[in-house]
Voltage-gated potassium channel (Prosthecobacter dejongeii), 1108 residues
Amino acid sequence: MSAAPPDPSPRRERLWRIIFLSDTPVGRAFDVVLLWLIGLSVLTIILESVDEIRLPNVRFFNVLEWIFTVLFTVEYLARLWSVRRPLRYALSFFGVVDLISVLPAYLELFIPGTHYLMALRVLRLMRMFRVLKMAEYLGEASILLAALRASRRKITLFLTTVIGIVLVEGTVVYVLEHEANPDFANIPQAIYWAIVTITTVGYGDVAPITVPGKMMASIIMLTGFAIIAVPTGIVTSELGRAMGRPLAHRRRCNECGWEDHDTRALHCQHCGVKLDA
Amino acid sequence: MSAAPPDPSPRRERLWRIIFLSDTPVGRAFDVVLLWLIGLSVLTIILESVDEIRLPNVRFFNVLEWIFTVLFTVEYLARLWSVRRPLRYALSFFGVVDLISVLPAYLELFIPGTHYLMALRVLRLMRMFRVLKMAEYLGEASILLAALRASRRKITLFLTTVIGIVLVEGTVVYVLEHEANPDFANIPQAIYWAIVTITTVGYGDVAPITVPGKMMASIIMLTGFAIIAVPTGIVTSELGRAMGRPLAHRRRCNECGWEDHDTRALHCQHCGVKLDA
Amino acid sequence: MSAAPPDPSPRRERLWRIIFLSDTPVGRAFDVVLLWLIGLSVLTIILESVDEIRLPNVRFFNVLEWIFTVLFTVEYLARLWSVRRPLRYALSFFGVVDLISVLPAYLELFIPGTHYLMALRVLRLMRMFRVLKMAEYLGEASILLAALRASRRKITLFLTTVIGIVLVEGTVVYVLEHEANPDFANIPQAIYWAIVTITTVGYGDVAPITVPGKMMASIIMLTGFAIIAVPTGIVTSELGRAMGRPLAHRRRCNECGWEDHDTRALHCQHCGVKLDA
Amino acid sequence: MSAAPPDPSPRRERLWRIIFLSDTPVGRAFDVVLLWLIGLSVLTIILESVDEIRLPNVRFFNVLEWIFTVLFTVEYLARLWSVRRPLRYALSFFGVVDLISVLPAYLELFIPGTHYLMALRVLRLMRMFRVLKMAEYLGEASILLAALRASRRKITLFLTTVIGIVLVEGTVVYVLEHEANPDFANIPQAIYWAIVTITTVGYGDVAPITVPGKMMASIIMLTGFAIIAVPTGIVTSELGRAMGRPLAHRRRCNECGWEDHDTRALHCQHCGVKLDA
């Protein structure tokens, strides 16, 4: 939450406390209602995209959508007004998400079709984690995030490599296929195919038809086999560490310096002296 | 088994012992016969669904099916009658499964087509594990389950995230594709595509055709690469732990009976006395 | 090698030594030539299956195939004759494989098309590992096999569960789809689809078209996500153990009973006394 | 860098320093400009392959391509001239890559279509890692490579096995399908299918249609399930080790300099002296 502590003005403070925190009954109620509204508005947008559902109720959906938009706009302005450093909030992750969740409705007036982007409102549901105070979930999340953050560099490196690989593979298969196979009309298309293949998604909307093309594809798939193992290996190892850490090394014996005690240890595993909690 | 101990009435007690336990020759025979009947009835239903097989033998299959249904109904009633707390059994997992495995046959009389749900009888085969007393298998199972249970929260968290991701991705690709590509006629369809893609199933029944659509899809696939690594990482780590634990439990303190010492412990973690190697 | 030690008769002994062992120059030469013959015969069969290649050279391929068949038949008989316990060899893994690699050629005379099964000759190449004396590879292999053997039960259990799952899922989707979608004409077909889906192969030759069908499919895919993680987790954990074992626990200190020394340790990590090699 | 230290001649030395190292402002500038040129040339080639983009600007692309080709040719010759052992550079990895990145342009004059292979220039971007001095990235890379190198043998072994498996599976399914299904016209095609299946890519361009064929395919997929777990298991375990090692290396013996002690070591594994915590 990048919201700054409230300034003296009592009314703004009260509003801020209600909107940004959920430690008061009212604040909590506000958040719960908000989450429901977000969920409903997302559902509306999804249903609205289905012609069979929208066409019979165009009016209904228009009204509904504008109700949500107005409510969220008011909320957004309220947030801007009540928080002490509006700019800082506006530029914070949630600030941007809150804006994105109302903007498309107005954009729609100029660029039709964009209003579906309002479905990005779903991102606002991330507030849920804070509201529902799912401590343990956050605990788990932190482990997962720790693991992902720790693997960040490795994964960047890995993705860079993969991009290089698909670029080369795509080009080679393009050279082998493009005369016989309209699916490989150009290199970007071939790269798209290489990505679809190496990730083992394999739509089959683009597939090699010549013998050399299929041979190359086979090699790509078999090597991709080893490649797909890498990110898993990375995340698993980091995860193993992230999960291992709290357990190991937590307590250190002042007598003998022995380090590996699990959380419930009372005495040093090695020299037997009492551990200080 | 949520079945309560039998009440004094000897006949019900004997029946209960036969039906619910398999510690007596008769009880064991009962269970084995039951398992075979279940297997056969499931096979019948599967074969019956193949027109080439059913049409020539409609009568035969009808008779067979009703025989199974009657037998299982009798068995169900017998269970209800013999167990001391019928309601508790009826609401237990196996109680519900037992009901489901006969109900569709009767429902069929009102709603055609539903009787295939009787194939859910296969769930009853889970009793097998108890009957065959596959201790070691149960041992393994308990490790797997322990690992899965331990990862429960992480996986919930992960699935929630994935659902959020496919929602956002689906919407974005919908906005990019829906005008050019009838496959992306509406957001639910686009979400279905996103799920098919991120799980690397990739049927190809729905696939992007526009350039921006394919670019977005490529990004989704490459990121999905890292995402698919997470559940594997979770289960593996938990499994590593679950399998590691028995190792840790190996040493037991004769003083205080504390059991969780790693292989290198020299003193009891709890009371500090020297452990005998 | 299930071959028994040779009996006194010198000629049979010499032949046995040549055919079954590769510790003599002749024996080694025999094995190398054999491997090349096997490789070539497999290649021949594969090429022969391509009409463009066979049709112009039917005679050539017929002759070639019979040459290989005769050679391998002679070899098989030689093995039977030279080994002391022919039956034991005939029933051994390699004995069966050797038979299978010649039988189809004769079967062909009665059942056309079966002779392609001669490609199973490729299995004979497994002898390669013995011939090439790839000690280190066998080392690695033993680790892999140890890991797989250790996971055997878990994987059996896992596959049983998966089969149960696809049975249930297939049936449910069949009930949802079979009226609207000819791809789901019967349950076996639906089970085939469920397997294609849960393994993330996703050909797309069978795919749901109704809304409930797609919803169900989405759930199946997302859960399959967690499921596919299990075997990986199993193998990884076991592999980690199999690889860890030689390292850990190998040396034990007789003074203090400390167990975890790596292979090059000269002194006990804990009490510092000299370890006996 | 397989470039040898420069010989006395000052001009060649200066040039060598600029081209091969990036420790001087000029040398660094040279590398950065080079990387940009490579990136642009690759982009050009990719865009050029798109008819909609090329056809209107054939001349433009021709000119651009030749500019890049000339520049890279000059650079290549400069490298050859400035380095002390030209042959050694020419045969080094980067030497070959540098050649490949210009050759196709000239080959094109004789064999149309080949010039797209210039996209292999992307490989030259690997120099980036050296230029950008991404120490930590190289650190990560070294861990990944260490893990992959360590798994090298296991993976070779694994791929050999997989190739054997797809050969057998392909043949079996060919025998079951080839009469009914033109997709399985010959064994190579069937092997291609087996590879597409076992890697879970599953294009669906080739798929079984007969009942026995689908049964066999189902078995292949379910077993492939366990198979796909192996490489992941290998890489993960090796990665776990490779990542673990730095931890183990943490303690160093001041007596004998032995470095590999795990965190719990109290005495040097090598000389037995007490380690200072």
